């Protein structure tokens, strides 16, 4: 049984009603339990939990320090291509957006790597649009072979692939795959993905299963906050996580919570999530699951990132460019979305240290695998 069959047993509307019906008593109960279940998670993300935010933040900080110490992992995205065959209503790389398209050559990739290594990075996240013909498995194989000597951890955020593709990429150095469902609301998913392979909701929702079967080291989950009710979408993310952890127990997991950001010609969020609500969600994930890694990108503002470093986040990006070739070239191509925190990696490290935390470049060594 794959996750899709679990998912089909749930009704979006019933889950949503269940979350909004939670009371202060439910939240208090969730806060004192030694082990929390999905009903507790509903309480923690509900509007009823807002008065308990300070208590949630303290518990989240304590649980995070117990499991991860006072450390933050650093990673940086490397955009390889902005070619894309999909139409996604919220993305600057969408097929219907008339922008110059580019895919980096090996020479250009090595120039990007040189800049990134100069910052001190050892964990890179490879990002592309979804263009199977030009940026497909053969391209990924070549890139992994090219950059493997420079990084001890390589993550990917590209189109979902078949299990046998992942099985070929893992031995070449692929450690982690991020695959965000964007939204678990099936009808809205179709509206936001009207054309291209990404319009296949089932194929996407089953991708973490294929990754688990392929024996990947880590899987990253998440939704794009702003497309639908964030509380209901986050419940389904937690459900997905719980299912995967039980079935693929040797795999590690991370969660991201990207909020919809502006881009050239872009869609405004349907649902706004304010900063306090994002803090609530971060703390709720941590209290629900002490093991899961929580990741924050440069989509969020400088002030917000400074304030949440101690609350439950375990990895953070810095100095990111979201246009292919953006590190080595002075010419600015179109970005996938606007960066909000523009500080350099050195400035982020100073901020992390000033809060009594240690910035970690590397938590993984390929000789140990
Ligand atoms: S979100 Fe991904 S698949 Fe959709 S348009 Fe952007 S790059 Fe392409």
Question: What does it look like?
Answer:
- The chain is of the alpha/beta class and 369 residues long.
- Helices cover 40% and strands 11% of the residues.
- It is built from 15 helices and 9 strands.
- The chain has an 8-stranded parallel β-barrel with strand order 1-2-3-4-5-6-7-8, surrounded by 4 helices.
- Strand 6, helix 13 and strand 7 form a beta-alpha-beta unit.
- Helix 3 packs across helix 4, helix 5 packs across helix 13 and helix 8 crosses helix 11.
- The longest helix is centred in the middle third of the chain and has 18 residues.
- The radius of gyration is 20 Å and the shape is globular.
- 46% of the residues are buried.
- The mean pLDDT is 93.
- The site of iron/sulfur cluster has 9 residues, from loops.
Which structural traits does this protein have?
globular, binds iron/sulfur cluster, 8-stranded parallel beta barrel, 369 residues
- Looking at how many chains there are and whether they match, the oligomeric state comes to single chain
What gap, in angstroms, lies between the N and C termini?
Answer: 29 Å
Ligands, ions, cofactors: iron/sulfur cluster
What is the global morphology? globular
Number of strands: 9
SSE-based structural type? alpha/beta
Spatial ordering of strands, largest sheet: 1-2-3-4-5-6-7-8
- Parts with pLDDT < 50 across at least 5 consecutive residues: none
Please describe the biggest sheet, giving its number of strands, its sense, and whether it closes into a barrel.
8 strands, parallel, barrel
Element pattern in H and E:
HHHHHEHEHEHEHHHEHEHEHEHE
Roughly what fraction of the amino acids lie in strands? Answer: 5-15%
Percentage of residues in helical conformation: 40-55%
Count of separate DSSP helical elements = 15
| Average residue-wise pLDDT | 93
**Radius of gyration over alpha carbons?**
20 Å
